[in-house]
Each structure stands twice: as structure tokens, then as C-alpha cells.
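Hello, quick one for you while I still have it in my head. A protein chain has come my way and I'm curious about its shape. I'm sending you its amino acid sequence along with the C-alpha cells. I'd be grateful if you could look everything over and explain what you see. Here's the protein in full, and shout if anything looks odd to you:
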Amino acid sequence: MKTNAKMKAKTLVQSWLEVELVFNGKTLAEALKELNKHLNSAHTHSRVREWEENRNGRGARLPREIRLYMAKVVLRHVLESSGVNASALASRAVSRIAEQLC
């Protein structure tokens, strides 16, 4: 079915937020706590919103480790929603795919 509405591509940050908040049912605080735990960082809600909105170019300059983390979360969701048992995949395999995307 054709539509006249143009689809806007999501950024990695927007996709990560959608997966975590909508599909995984987390709050922003929970998603952020997990990101900070995995990356041994202390990013804040406001920083995530800057990334999401690309304020001051921050979304375009995400550090690689953040891009990789977010890509892995999104990739696992995409695989699962496509019928692939992503939990059966080796973590290293998902990491290698994410590295190629980032």
C-alpha cells in the first residue's frame, strides 16, 4: 500500500529509546541505569534527550561504546521480532554485527 506520508528515518538513539521504553517496557531511568552499568558511566536523562534531539550535534557525535551498546539492544530486538531466537545467539556474534553497523 502506497502512502503519501514520508517516513523519517530514526536515529540509533531514537530506536534504542523505542525498544527500551515501548517494547521492553522500561522507564527512561531503568534504561539509563542499565546503559550506565554496562558502560561504567554516569550519563543523565538530559544527556539522553540531547542525543535524541541531536542538540548541539551531540547525537551525531555519540562515543563508539555508546553506539555499540545501543546497536546491540536494537539488533537483539529486531532479530527477536523477525522470529530469530536472539538469546540463543552468542553474545560475540551480536557484538560483531553491531560493530559492523557502527
In short: The radius of gyration is 14 Å. The mean pLDDT is 88.
